[in-house]
Design brief:
- The protein has 133 residues and is mainly β.
- It has a single domain, classed as Barwin-like endoglucanases.
- It contains 3 helices and 10 strands.
- Strands 2-6-3-5-4-7-1-8-9-10 form a 10-stranded mixed beta sheet.
- Strand 4 and strand 5 (54-61) form a beta hairpin.
- It is globular and about 45 Å long.
- It is found in: Cytoplasm.
- Its cofactor is pyruvate.
């Protein structure tokens, strides 16, 4: 048996675009999704902090270093440019693996530049690898 567990997330990224006339997906700066351990075409869940809307789609790479977060296709109707979103990826783990899973969290600033990279511990507390050094 496997269970779905949070693998990683990009926390409170700012939506920079919403393109209805597009095939689908979310365009993300690859520097951000790679820092979160995500890969292009990976299925992700998006939560809009301002509206409460949630949706699932897949990642496509934008231009590195540009901070792009653009919802495409029908998903563009569920967000507004300037909204904050949480982009979450999941992994299928055995119950034993799930006991030690510590999701990776990428924090960004208002320009969608990485400001902090950390892990969750149990009960939702953050674990900062930098503090250990």
């Amino acid at each position: 048996m496997h269970i779905q567990m949070l693998k990683s997330k990009i926390h409170r990224a700012v939506v920079t675009g919403a393109e209805v006339d597009y095939v689908g997906s979310i365009t993300v700066d690859p520097e951000l999704f790679e820092a979160a351990g995500m890969v292009e075409y990976e299925k992700v869940q998006i939560a809009d902090v301002e509206t409460g809307n949630r949706l699932e789609t897949y990642i496509i790479a934008g231009e590195p270093g540009k901070g792009e977060i653009c919802l495409n296709g029908a998903a563009a109707k569920l967000v507004n440019v300037g909204d904050h979103v949480i982009i979450m990826s999941y992994a299928s783990l055995t119950p034993e693996e799930a006991k030690t899973q510590k999701p990776l969290v990428v924090f960004v600033n208002e320009k969608n530049q990485l400001t902090r990279l950390t892990h969750y511990e149990k009960a939702g507390r953050l674990y900062d690898q930098e503090a250990e050094k």
